[in-house]
Hints:
Structural class: alpha/beta
Shape: globular
Distance between the termini: 57 Å
CATH topology of the domain at 3-142: Rossmann fold
Mean pLDDT: 77
Radius of gyration: 31 Å
CATH superfamily of the domain at 3-142: Resolvase, N-terminal catalytic domain
Low-confidence stretches: 271-280, 302-317
Number of strands: 15
Largest sheet: 5 strands, mixed
Strand order of the largest sheet: 2-1-3-4-5
Amino acid sequence: MICVGYSKRASCDPNMGLLSLKEQNDRIREYARSKGWKLSSFYEDRSDSPDGDNGFQKLREAGLRREFDVVILLSVFRFGANVSFARELLLNAFYKAGIRFVIIEDDIDSSTMSYEELSEYFFCKRQKLNAAFKKYKERKEVQENNLLSGFNLCYGYKLSDDKTEFLIDEVAASVIQKIFDMYDEDYKTKEICEYLNTSGFDAPAYRLYQVFPQKGFTGINKWSPAILSRLKRNNKYIGADIELQFRNAWYPQIISEEQFIRVNEKVKGNTRGKKVNVRTENVFGKIYYLNEDNVLKFETCSDLKKYPYFHRRRDRNVIITYAELEDAVRTRLAEEKAKCEKIIQLIESGRSAELIADIDNEYSEAFMEYAEACEKYANERLELYSSSELEDKDSEDYHSQECYSQAHCSQGDELLQAVDELTQKLQDKADLCEERKRNLSAENAWIKRYMQYTDDFQFTRKIASELIDSITVLADGSIDVKLYCDEADAFPADWRCE
Length: 498
């Protein structure tokens, strides 16, 4: 069985950046090795444009000539100009001709799927790409023109026609005012929900879909206690200047600050003197519990409903409370922030200049090797040309000009391929050096990630997943919190200990 690989730097998905051919080829080789296959060749497209597809065309021609049996690629978004091109070649040409294809990123193997299943796969991918383009186009417009995005809307507001400000949605604002007035009159949350649903008021998600259709709506147009709970705590309703991705946005006032505080204090006061279930949503995700032998005893998952009031299911004894868990995470984050502050001081003192100079020297050496290799190939070509000019026509070993022309063409192709490979290696080296230099500055992702932490930092599931690698509770009750610190390896180990 003849197996080939295909890789492409650019992607037709605007949210995916360039990916080096070496990294793609390594993953393709690893996959082929796991299957016991031997790759005979690679087809590559080095262009930074999604439309650059010389390798794609060569793969197509070779496939139609049945020069291989299997083609492996990393992503359908890095194959041809777009998903339609990929579908046409892989499904309608290769699949029907009996050529097997594998897409590593989505775990797709055409030999195990029917034509209908593969058609559904390509349809879903095309839909995903269309949605990505719409979001990319709007995000680009917002960024270039310093505009606001409708995706930052919340219930009670709408986007102005010129997309420069958020305006009050009078329909939703009247409902919000009614909700706060009913809380002021001591109505219960359940009673307010019943009133809103029986009166036919649209739920927040559906109303946002009406004022900004691009946001979409897939839920049920119905009010619930959870919606009211979030709504009454939304401090945008008292007027707020919020920092968004590209600019600040002002949310006009709908509710007076006095009524907002009064309602929230009243709702809190309703629980005084009562037995309350204090179980809170676990924003820290999966947590591992070890026994005395440091072997996994159990982990939080769906059977514990992901609540942080962790207990054994039989005796209901508390193992750890949420407060203890949060304190351990905050302590660990504070320690990591202290390390970042030390690193920043060392950077500002000039300690990183020597390391950056070493990286520059390393790139200079790579460039010299590139120049020497190019010069070597050029000299070989010149030597062949000189031989053709100086050769004695009366000699028995005389070669015709046609032979030299063929040799020139062959050597020219080899030279072009070799120079392309060297150029790619040099570019990869330059990208790596730039990344290493960037990681030796305050722009290091590790520093930027943990310097934002403050004592009043509010955790969410998304933020916690970006910061925390794992949380392990040992048998003695101690808590081990591991953070994502891969980028910290850019600095010498002794820097973090000074």
